[in-house]
Amino acid sequence: MTKKALELTEGEAQVIEGEFINVKQSTVRVIEGGHIELQQVGALTIDGERIDATQSAACIMRGKELSLNQSINIMSVSDNASLNFSFSPILIAKNNINIDKSAAGVMISKEIKSKDTSSLLMIAQKVEGNITTLLDWKSALAFGAVLGGVLGLARLFMGRK
């Protein structure tokens, strides 16, 4: 489906392409477009200039501007990301991440602004706000060294029979 403006409500689609896309209460395999608005949508991959998702789920989201509200996705890659009451195990933003009352596994960005957020690991040049991280860079380095040692030792013992 290729159009400049496309709207899908309560349906299913394999591929949606368009300049402006508005999808509500649907499942879609692939969405590609300029400005994409999603409400209660399940998608495999979403690729667009600007993505606004509300109560939606996706595996991979790529875009310049990404806004998630009460949504979940496995991996996000963008220039700027904004999360509100959302969850993303892998969140990568080139410039900044604004995250509010959300959770993230790994966050990587130049600047992170946070309010009541938790994450496993965070890598940024500048961090503002309160955020609870499980691992800082020192503990992540120590964890990696211990894990590498344990796996090396296990491999050594598995080689002997």
Explain the overall architecture.
This protein is mainly beta and 161 residues long. It has one domain. The protein is built from 1 helix and 6 strands; from the N terminus they run E-E-E-E-E-E-H. It has one helix at 137-159; strands at 2-9, 12-54, 57-69, 72-84, 87-100, 103-135. The protein has a 6-stranded parallel β-sheet with strand order 1-2-3-4-5-6. The longest helix has 23 residues, at 137-159. It is globular, with a radius of gyration of 19 Å. The relative contact order is 0.08. The model has no long low-confidence stretch (mean pLDDT 91).
Shape: globular
Lateral strand order in the biggest sheet: 1-2-3-4-5-6
**Uncertain parts:** none
Question: What would you report as the Rg, rounded to the nearest angstrom?
Answer: 19 Å
Averaging pLDDT over every residue, what do you get? 91
Oligomer: single chain
How many extended strands?
6
| Biggest sheet statistics | 6 strands, parallel
- How many helices in DSSP terms? 1
Please give the alpha-carbon distance between the first and last residues. 59 Å
Tell me the helix content.
Answer: 10-25%
List keywords for this structure.
6-stranded parallel beta sheet; mainly beta; 1 helix; 6 strands; 161 residues; globular
